[in-house]
Amino acid sequence: MSPDYDPNTVLPGFQARAIDLGQCSRDLDDLAALLTSNRHLEERRHLAPFFGEHPHLSLFLGSYAVDLDAYDRLAHEFDLFGLFAADIVVGDCAAKNYCFVELEGEFLALCLGEFLCCPLLGA
Predict the structure, then answer these.
(1) Which pLDDT tens digit goes with each residue over 48-105?
(2) Is residue 120, in this structure, part of any structural domain at all?
(3) pLDDT(28) > 50
(4) Residue ranges with strand state E in 1-123
(5) Longest CA span, the chain
(6) Looking at the DSSP assignment, which residues form a beta bridge with residue 89?
(7) How many domains does the chain have?
(8) N or C: more exposed end of the chain, with fewer CB within 10 A?
């Protein structure tokens, strides 16, 4: 790490967050309801608003990145060079590792189905 690195720094566009696995588990119930009530999920109409309203589940998406030991930074619609935006970015501030998530309708819905059986969350 550079000598001037401050682990309390929050980059512009990010929130400092602590994941609450209990809330995340409750968010899974909301996700299950979303998945069962909508046959065709659209990124802008369904997925982006859902994850924006469920930050603990957004943070938990970082568990797919094996280099993240903590999930303590979160950004939605994070601007990349003024050309692109990452739908969700989850970070481990101390390790300076980040997981970028792109929401893509039905494909993501299939991947998120795995969360419904997640032993870590007691589901």
Answers:
(1) 999 999 999 999 988 888 788 889 999 999 888 888 888 999 988 888 888 888 887 5
(2) no
(3) yes
(4) 15-16, 73-80, 84-92, 97-101
(5) 51
(6) 75, 100
(7) 1
(8) N
Overall average pLDDT of the 12-19 stretch: 86
For residue 39, give the DSSP letter.
S
Residue of higher predicted confidence among 29 and 13: 29
Are the beta carbons of 71 and 92 closer than 8 angstroms? yes
Show the CA angle centred on residue 69, arms to residues 81 and 113, nearest 5°: 80
Please indicate, yes or no, if residue 61 is contained in any of the structural domains. Answer: yes
The encoded tokens of residue 90 equal 């989850």
Domain of 51? Answer: 15-115
User: Which secondary-structure segment (H or E) carries 28?
Assistant: helix 21-37
Asked if residues 73 and 98 have their Cβ atoms less than 8 Å apart, the reply is yes
Q: What is the pTM of this model?
A: 0.78
Q: How large is the angle between the packed helices 21-37 and 105-112, nearest 10 degrees?
A: 130
* The predicted structure's pLDDT at residue 39: 73
Residue 64 to residue 79: CA distance in whole angstroms? 21
DSSP secondary structure code for residue 51 in this structure: H
Which residue carries 């003024």 as its tokens?
82
